[in-house]
Amino acid sequence: MVMGWHNWGVRILVVDDEQRLARSIGRGLEAEGFDVDVVHDGLDGLWRAREGSYAAIVLDIMLPGMNGYEVCRTLRAEDNWTPILLLTAKDGEYDEAEGFELGADDYLRKPFSHVVLTARLRALARRSSGAPALVLRVGELALDPGTRRCTRGDSVVELTPREHAVLESLMRRAPDVVPKQDLLDEVWGIDFEGDPNIVEVYVGYLRRKIDKPFAVNAVRTVRGVGYQVVES
Amino acid sequence: MVMGWHNWGVRILVVDDEQRLARSIGRGLEAEGFDVDVVHDGLDGLWRAREGSYAAIVLDIMLPGMNGYEVCRTLRAEDNWTPILLLTAKDGEYDEAEGFELGADDYLRKPFSHVVLTARLRALARRSSGAPALVLRVGELALDPGTRRCTRGDSVVELTPREHAVLESLMRRAPDVVPKQDLLDEVWGIDFEGDPNIVEVYVGYLRRKIDKPFAVNAVRTVRGVGYQVVES
DNA sequence: TCGACAGCTGAGAGAGCTCTCAGGTGTCCT
DNA sequence: AGGACACCTGAGAGCTCTCTCAGCTGTCGA
Hints:
Chain A has helices at 19-31, 42-51, 68-77, 96-101, 114-129, 161-173, 180-188, 198-210, and strands at 11-15, 35-39, 56-60, 84-88, 106-109, 136-138, 141-144, 149-152, 155-157, 178-179, 219-222, 226-229. By secondary structure, chain A is of the alpha/beta class. Chain A is elongated, with a radius of gyration of 19 Å. Chain A starts with 10 loop residues before the first strand and ends with a strand. The A-B interface holds A 95-98, 100-101, 105-107, 120, 126-127, 130, 132-133, 135, 142, 144, 146-147, 149, 151, 153-156 and B 95-98, 100-101, 105-107, 120, 126-127, 130, 132-133, 135, 142, 144, 146-147, 149, 151, 153-156.
């Protein structure tokens, strides 16, 4: 499925005091093969970061103890250049521009999709570790999350960003069945409030593009659970 | 203007037999600070590539001598993993999916915008050299081509992809004046056939976002020539 | 001062993407 | 067999982005 790639031994620090979100991020990154440490307090985060062996840090702005800006500024002042991905609230209570000046490498506005977070984080972690890009493969299906390119056999399949995110979620876990709720969480974010039917709609779009033109179906429905991508 | 960044000594090989296009690519990459070698024949390209000191290779599919696929496949078979960016014609005479399987790291469909090419190429070259990402700065304006984020002073400015490309072209050459035709070539591609007035339209959009809300203008018109970004 | 031309901008068409909704289809259990 | 429920899908609304066009404004030179 995943070729020439491993994240084992790559450590990520997550600093976020929203328990549910932090757990969700942690679980997702562990599923990616990262070693994840989660702390809920700014000062804890700073101490951990100083230990120094993280490939990247996911840092919320709003934190008890010491806020994300200060953690970021302090680390940079100490000449610690571990890549930092800042999480900012959309209400703009804190100033997004500031993070830019403080030495954050990337930032993400809440609420964000899990797929986007891991994509950005992989890019950051790769930058510091120099590991090669990866291509997801399941049978004759191939998906390159970096260049956002998808092929089935000899055909190139054009995907919209949403379609790509859904397929990526499915392929990362193949051949496992991915529950519908997980897709919703990972692609639309844990606080999506629309019609969950959107998952079915997007699976439908995907099938039109990667199944309809071919003899064998790659996307299977597992009734009452979710979907899976199978070898074809 | 550009901080903590240099591409000097980073060599790029361009293999393309369309003279005009190859020259345009070469000029653009040299303006970026890359050392560029251009050859127009597949076999030449292969020999050059074997010399081995390139950070990345831009490789057209359609070539006299030996086509791009074969060059790519041969290099990989020889265990040469220099990052390759394939250029494919949009008419699909050659199969895009094939490049994927042959070990190309990225590919771009013609006609492409110069800004997109250099962005992808920088990503590839950085991957192999491990250099840090860069942020363009002119006065209080900052633009991160990697994360596509723009700020002026303390404000975050949301840009569409086209707007970003225009601003990036301007900022990369700041404080020089960028001729209107250069913007057209770099952002819309050398074979854009629409109304050149599009440049004025997009500069207008940019000004609405990065000048109107502020006291001092960052984008200046140089009548009869083009535009420039100045310190503000 | 006035004409010519460069540049500016508002209006709007067209395309693509996302999401909602409602009605249809299929499956499973009793 | 029939009902309940999961899933599928076509239609279409709303939005953003891109680009065209036409008319306006400002500038420069004669």
